[in-house]
Structure formats: structure tokens, C-alpha cells
Amino acid sequence: MQNDNTVFSWPITVYYEDTDAGGVVYHANYLKYFERARTEYLRSIGFKQNDLLQQNISFVVRNIDVDFIERARLDEQLIVRSYVSKLKKATVMFCQEIVNHQEVTLCKAMVKVACIDIEKLKPIAIPHYIYQEISNGDI
Q1: Which residues form the catalytic set?
Q2: Do 58 and 50 meet the contact criterion of CB atoms below 8 Å apart?
Q3: What is the pTM of this model?
Q4: Is the pLDDT score of 56 beyond 80?
């Protein structure tokens, strides 16, 4: 991962609803954990999803590359770590990982999100005030 002062960490608890019959986290739920962490990252720098939607702005997943490494299990306390690895005019690349309390990496992902105009469903430049906060790197 990145330098600790630029990494955003978000805690996750594995609930029964997240798992299969064997108590192992279902693969699609890792994507939900990553999504929650990106949402909370935006909130931590001052941008709530609902406020962005009211401004006709949304961030949508453009591409995701996921590596499932180890299993997460029912009742585990996990941490989702995220940092911005690349910031462009209309996209943000997040490097994310999920670790357990023993610091074992369970899943990693590179997630490219695009800023869009939600009425036109077309990419737009990330508004300057958002770009500035993301580029500050003070997560």
C-alpha cells in the first residue's frame, strides 16, 4: 500500500448475509466493501453522494481488476484500505485492499471510476473543487 498518511481505512464486519452456506464471504460482496470504502472516502473529504447527485454528478466504476487472495469468514473484523493511485481530468484510479486483523491481505483491487453527468450519462471533468480535495492527498 501507499504511505500511511494517504491511505483511507474503513472497518467492515462480515455478517451472515455476506457469506455462503460455509460462512465464507461471497465474492461479489468484496466489491460492495470496496464501494462502501470509496463512498466513505469521498465523505471524509467533504463530499456526500446525495449532494453530488443533486449537482448532477456521479462517480461510476469504469473498470475493476480484482485479485481474490484469501477467504474472509463470518464475524471477521476487516479493514478496507484505499488510496488514489492516479488522478486524471475525468477519472480516479483507486488501489484498494481488504485485510484482516492479522494484516493478511484477503483481496486487492484496482478500481477506475469516472465522473459523469447523470442526466446525459456522459463523462465530464471532475469539478475543480473535488479534484483539489482528491489531489491534496490528506486522507
Answers
A1: 20
A2: no
A3: 0.92
A4: yes
Residue closest to 116 by CA, chosen among 59, 63, 47: 59
55 CB-near residues (< 8 Å, 6+ apart):
127
Of 11, 10, 16, 9, nearest to 75 (Cα)?
16
- Kindly state the cell numbers that stand for 7: 491511505
Q: In this model, does residue 90 exceed pLDDT 60? A: yes
Cβ neighbours of 11 (radius 10 Å): 10
Calpha distance 120→132 (Å, rounded): 24
Contact 12, 98 (CB under 8 A): yes
DSSP per-residue string spanning 91-117: EEEEEEEEE-TT--EEEEEEEEEEEEE
The answer, yes or no, to whether residue 4 has pLDDT greater than 70, is no
Q: Are 30 and 71 in contact (CB under 8 A)?
A: no
Instruction: List CB contacts of 27: < 8 A, sequence separation 6 or more.
Output: 68
> For 26-39, what is each residue's pLDDT tens digit?
999 999 999 999 99
Q: What pLDDT is attached to residue 6?
A: 86
